[in-house]
Structures are given as structure tokens and as C-alpha cells.
Design goal:
The structure is a homodimer of 400-residue chains. With 400 residues, chain A is α/β, with parallel strands linked by helices. The first copy, chain A, is 38% helix and 14% strand. Strand 2 of chain A pairs antiparallel with strand 2 of chain B. Chain A binds a DNA duplex (30 and 30 nucleotides) through helix 2 and helix 4.
Chain lengths: 400, 400
DNA sequence: GCGCTTCCGGTAAGCGCTTACCCCAGGCCC
DNA sequence: GGGCCTGGGGTAAGCGCTTACCGGAAGCGC
């Protein structure tokens, strides 16, 4: 009782106030709690049944013009918008897709990179790409972050029941869990592997990396190349690592790797690995290729600390080509992934899984691969003369 | 008919297949479509009524231990998770908050900054802060982006019906619309203004900016300061601009501003304004303070193009202190906003609006202000000796 | 003028949950 | 031993929508 003002919906009243907590429950009373109008309110205002209102709103069996107008006017006056949950329950479509991202796990000794959040940039750009297409289909993204290798995936399954399908960023679930999940709801993974019930979207690590290694080995003629890896169990990392090795060997260049070259995709990790290598007195390879750009940022930092000339003494390259890459000093050579496209494609694919077009063939089990290409800048040894490099170069401006 | 396998839920069957489109409708048949179990399935498996299942799941009126165990076992076996929409409809709580962000509008002449996405970094970090606390309350964020000054706000009202409350980033709605929206659902705005029905969260522009201007005018003794503004109607911009003027005048320093100093919070805008000033032959002020860091990036770029020494000839400072700031060359002096806190506070506040704690007083109409502080780096003229500046300084490393 | 087809719009069922309400045992007291 | 209370669990209503189904009113041809 005493719920909203003027809201005798005319349909069975019932408990209402019970769990309504927070709506007009506060001492403020008056001007709030005006809970949004329901379809019953509209029907009453227009003098028709709720079925007619619904039909008008959904363009079904086009009702008589006059009826339609009456309804539309009532809708406009009341500012009615149908409730998402009710609609979802009825049509069995929420028009929401769940997106699971991995929450970066800061370690103890991140030092200068402690609150370094470029990590976020990459997944966020992917999400941006998703959101962009999602708009067109009237979908929204429901975002949830989980810890690396979320123990039981419970939080992921829960998110599934709030949405029509899931897009999983890398390394948020195990393969078994993924297969199980895929059996219950449409799922698209990013930079992972397809399962019989899910589809994966990734970019072409091999081609881009091959181009980079050939550039370093052949064009620059560097005699040794090290690979500072990302998470060991990341498929992207495995592919990149294997390609570096294969191409280096093919070019007759020494490939440097090993346990002490183990990074974790973070700037802090890249810096840490570099420092330890330096401390151990090992001679660095002529060029260091990093699992991603974050790692490269860390490497650049650690080398600069030791006054090591980049690319004069050691060349450095990254992977991803995040926007910051071109603002670094020296500007970072990197393999460009179509970041936003990755997201857009993931969404497009998921949507096809959720509501397949008439003739649409089943996509499950597919591995969708997007192209990559090398972006040469200064950190690999290319000069500022390259067309790509007309960017925020503080250097040139500093010494007239 | 022929819906799922073994899914005779025992409750009225009905239409089912009608709108189920996409679930097992595809030619694939078999291994998919296994639509998730419902509470009826669990009840049948446990040999109890759905009410008991629900009670066990929600810990109500603790049922007998034996019953509870039977139910929990059935839940585990079936992997049951309640459907979000159904639950939401019933308890009138979706456990979802809508977040509206502004989609950057690329203009025609963005040049090098065309696909510059640092713009995203700031809002994304705020969202990260929200998500972090949202977790603790079992909420998820439903993200939607709108164009600057979304014409009628329809998309915002629609999002409201998919969630329990809204958090609006800056400049996505007009004040009138906002007041109307606030009457229907709990709303928190960021960097805007409070209305009688909504609360606003922002950071303390005045204090941080005051500190910056005093630093430039007093510590560095610069004789003139220009302010390259953000969107004219952004309250943040107004406050920053006013503070720059007031403090400059108070310090007896010339304040340079005017229509040709109008930026738009983007790097491209900052570069454009700077280039036009340079072309027009105007003499630049000794220091340029930017509406935000993006703008400063553009300014840095344009000045470097002209071989103007920063901070030797012109000092530059930003606002926000986004992570990239410390990787620029020279490293950018900026006023630090507690970015993630902004998001966390916004969520906390919204949650208090949605389900106020027992004694909780009404927050509506409040303007919550978070503290800021100056981060001195090189672009204002401070040397690399400053403790803050031990960061990715490519410069030092380049010339041994 | 009468049966048939259309076209409209109302009635009600059902989406998957939560919970008020009630009924049935069992235990208790006098 | 009967009335009462209590606790456990089932029944059903209701959350706000969509839509199958039906009944009434026109419109039509013969």
C-alpha cells in the first residue's frame, strides 16, 4: 500500500511494496519513487487493452490507425518504456551479452608501474569494438571482470543467466569449463581456442610475427633475437613464441629464450625480466621481441635506466600496436592487431549464434582469424623518416 | 513441442518454441539448445516443490536439513543458476546498473590522431573503478555509449529499464532530461551538476588547478599563462578555466584565453588550436595549461613539430594525469584526479540510492567532491631530478 | 438477406522466479 | 485427549510483458 502516486494499475495488486526497497521507501517520500509507468497504465490512458498497446509497440498486425495514435500518444505522455526484465522473460531474449574480462593481478614489486593501467587499454578497445556493433542490434554489454583463471567459473555461469550469450576475453576459463558452458549458452572466446560448441576469434599471430622477425633479421641484419614471453599458457603467446623461433632459425639468426625470459604481459613484468637479465651479466641479444606492447614498455624503461641505447645497442619490438606505442620514446615498432575489429567480429559472431539468420550455417567450432601487419617505427632501428613516424616526437624538437 | 531434451518441466507448457529462435533451432540439432535447467527441473529432481527450492537458494525460513541437502544436490547436478530476468521481474531488482559513456566524435581533420584512442582511457578507468565495487554487491555494469548530447535521451531512458539505476558520464544528457530521469530512476552523474533528484560526483578542480597555477606562476615565475579549454559547456572545463584566470590574476600573471583557445578535450583539438595560434603569428604564452591530458598530448605534438622547446620556450601542463602522461616526452605535468575512485564512489553512491541502508539519509541533490593534487614532471620545467620522474625516460638513455 | 471472409481488439496463458498464505503434522499443555 | 501453537512445505498469485486464441463487427458475393 501507499506505493506510488496515482498508480492503480488496474491489474491485480498484490505484495508490491515488499522487496521494493529503495523506491520511495526513504524518508524523503514525495518527489521520488514515482515508479515508471507500466503497460497497464498506458492501456488505461489510451482506453484500450494491454494487448493493443503491445501490438502497437511491436508493430504487430498493424492495428487501426486511430487506435495506434491513441496508444502512441499515451506512451508519449507517460514516457513509457517497457521493462527489460519483463520483456526478456516473455520473449526469451534479454538483448544483453555478457563480457568477461580478466582483472590484472598486481604483484608486489610492480614499482613504477604499480598503478599502470595501460593493461586496460587493450581489452577496453576490444570492448569498444563490440559495443559499436552491439548498438546496431539493440544489444548492450554486461561487463564482469574475474581473476586470472577464476577457480570454478561460477561467476561466469552466473553472468550467463543475465545475458543471451557470452564473450570471453583470454584466459578467463579452462577448456573443459568452456565446453560445458558452450553447451548451455552461445559463447565466443577471444584469443583462445574453439571447442565443438564455441567459436574463437583471434588475430593472425604467425603472419605478423613472421613479418617482424624477417624485418629484424633480414632488413636490419640483427644476429640474435630474444623473445620475452607473455603468459605461458596463452595460445597467443605460444603462437608468437613458436613463430619467432621458427623464423629466426630459418634466417640463420640466434634465437634466445628460456625460463629467465618469462614475462606476464605486463610492463612491470617486462622491466623485471630485463633487469634480472642485466644483473645476471648475460649479454643481451641484438633485438628483443616482446609478447605484447605492455611488456615492451617495461623493457624500454629498464634499458633506459641502464643507459642502453635503443635501438643502437638493443632493438625492441612489441605486439598489438596499442595507441601509446607511438608516443613512446623511441616510438615502438609493433605488430598491429585490428583491435576494435576483434571485438566487432566477436560480437557479430555471437549474434549469429544467438539468432542465426535464416540460411545461416552453424558457426560452432570455428576459429576466426583476423589479419595483422607490421608497423615499423624507431625502436627496431628504422629512422624517423618513415611515413608512419610523424608522431609526437619530442626528441627532434628538443635540440634545435 | 520438441523443445529441449528431457525437459518436461511439469508446469504448463504452452507456446515455448515460438520466440525461442536460435536455441536449437539451427540445423545442427543435437548437442546444443540444451536450454539451461529451470527451478522446476530442480524441484522435480529433488522431489520437492519449487517453493522449497527457492527457499533453500535464498536461505529463507531455513528448511529441514534433509530437504536442503536434497535440493542442493539437485542444484549441483543440474548446474542450475536462476534466470536473471525472471528473478529481476519477481524481486524488482535486476542487480544491473546502466553506465552511459560518451562516444568520441571524430572530426574530419584529426590527422595523426585519427584513431587515437586515449580518449577512452579516462572513462574506461572510471568504469573499472565502478566495476570493482559493483562486484562486491553482486552487480554488473551494462554499458552503452551515446553521441555527444544525444538528441532526445531516448536511448538513455531505454537503458534505464534494463537496469536498477544509471551512472552518467559527462555530457550525455541535458539538465532538464536529467531531472526528469532522476524522478523515475536512481541516477548518479559524473562531473556534472546535482539536481534535486540526482547526485553528482566530481573531483576538486579548484584545488588542483590552483596548486598548478601557483606552481607555474610562483615556483617557475612564468609571466603569462594560456588556458586551452575543453568543451565549453562542461562544468569541469568552466571550473578549471575560472580557476586558471583567478589564480593567474591573483599572482599578477597575464591570463591568455579567448575564442581561438577553444579545444574539445581531444588530442586532435589541442594540436589544431596550437597550430592555428602558431600560424596566426600570435606569440604564445610562457605556459599553456590544458583542459585535460589528451589536449596536452596534442599541444606537445604541435609544438614539437615546430621545434619549439618544451619546457624551455613554452611549458605545458595537463589535467587528469592519465597513465600515458608519464610516458610522454617530456613527461607531462598534470593534476591528478583519483580516476578509479571517481567510479568507485559513483557506484557506491548509486547503490545507496537503490537500496538505502536502514538509517541512511537521502543523498539526492548532493555534490560529492573528491580531492586532486598536482603531479610535477618535466613539461612544466621541473627537472628529472624530482622523485616523481623516475619514469620511462628514453632521453637520458639515448646519448651516452 | 445470409453465410463467409477479414480485420480488430480483448481475454488469458505463460515466461521463471519469489513469497504470502494455508494446510498438515507433531508436540505441548492443561 | 482435545485445543493450540509451531515448523515445514505445498499451492498459487503476481512481477510486466508478448501473443495465441477467440468473438464480434464489417464487408463481400451470390
Amino acid at each position: 500500500m501507499t506505493t506510488g502516486t496515482g498508480s492503480e494499475t488496474g491489474h491485480p495488486a498484490g505484495q508490491a511494496a515488499v522487496v521494493a526497497a529503495g523506491r520511495g521507501a526513504g524518508p524523503a517520500g514525495g518527489l521520488t519513487g514515482q515508479s515508471p509507468p507500466t503497460i497497464y497504465d498506458v492501456a488505461r490512458a489510451a482506453g484500450v487493452s494491454i494487448a493493443s498497446v503491445s501490438r502497437v509497440l511491436n508493430g504487430r498486425r498493424n492495428p487501426r490507425e486511430e487506435t495506434r495514435d491513441r496508444v502512441l500518444q499515451a506512451v508519449a505522455e507517460l514516457g513509457f518504456v517497457p521493462d527489460g526484465a519483463a520483456r526478456a522473460l516473455s520473449v526469451r531474449l534479454k538483448e544483453v551479452v555478457g563480457v568477461v574480462v580478466r582483472r590484472p593481478q598486481p604483484t608486489d614489486d610492480d614499482g613504477v608501474f604499480a598503478d599502470e593501467d595501460e593493461n586496460l587499454q587493450f581489452p577496453d578497445m576490444i570492448n569498444r569494438g563490440m559495443e559499436f556493433v552491439a548498438q546496431r542490434y539493440g544489444y548492450d554489454l554486461l561487463i564482469r571482470s574475474v581473476d586470472l583463471h577464476e577457480s570454478d567459473g561460477r561467476r561466469i555461469f552466473a553472468l550467463a543467466r543475465k545475458s543471451d550469450g557470452l564473450i570471453l576475453h583470454d584466459q578467463v576459463i579452462s577448456t573443459e569449463q568452456l565446453a560445458r558452458l558452450g553447451r548451455q549458452v552461445p559463447v565466443v572466446t577471444l584469443a583462445f581456442v574453439p571447442t565443438p560448441t564455441t567459436v574463437n576469434v583471434r588475430s593472425d599471430n604467425e603472419t605478423g610475427m613472421r613479418e617482424l622477425i624477417r624485418h629484424l633479421a633480414v632488413d636490419h641484419g640483427y644476429g640474435s633475437i630474444g623473445y620475452l614471453s607473455g603468459h605461458l599458457d596463452s595460445p597467443d603467446n605460444l603462437a608468437r613464441s613458436a613463430t619467432v623461433r621458427a623464423e629466426a632459425e630459418a634466417a640463420g639468426v640466434q634465437f634466445v629464450n628460456g625460463p629467465q625470459w618469462q614475462g606476464d604481459y605486463s610492463a612491470a613484468g617486462g622491466a623485471r625480466v630485463t633487469e634480472r637479465l642485466l644483473e645476471s651479466g648475460t649479454e643481451l641479444p641484438r633485438a628483443i621481441v616482446c609478447g605484447n606492447d605492455q611488456t615492451a614498455i617495461g623493457v624500454l624503461y629498464a634499458l633506459a635506466q641502464r643507459r642502453i641505447d635503443i635501438p643502437g645497442q638493443v632493438a625492441v619490438a612489441g605486439f598489438d600496436d596499442i595507441p601509446v606505442a607511438r608516443h613512446l620514446n623511441p616510438r615502438l615498432t609493433s605488430v598491429r592487431q585490428p583491435i576494435q575489429d576483434l571485438g566487432a567480429t566477436a560480437f557479430e559472431t555471437l549474434h549469429a549464434l544467438i539468432s542465426p539468420a535464416p540460411g545461416q550455417q552453424d558457426l560452432r567450432g570455428r576459429d576466426i582469424v583476423l589479419p595483422t601487419r607490421l608497423n615499423r617505427r624507431e625502436s627496431c632501428g628504422c629512422g624517423p623518416g618513415h611515413p608512419d613516424s610523424l608522431v609526437l616526437a619530442g626528441m627532434e624538437g628538443r635540440q634545435p
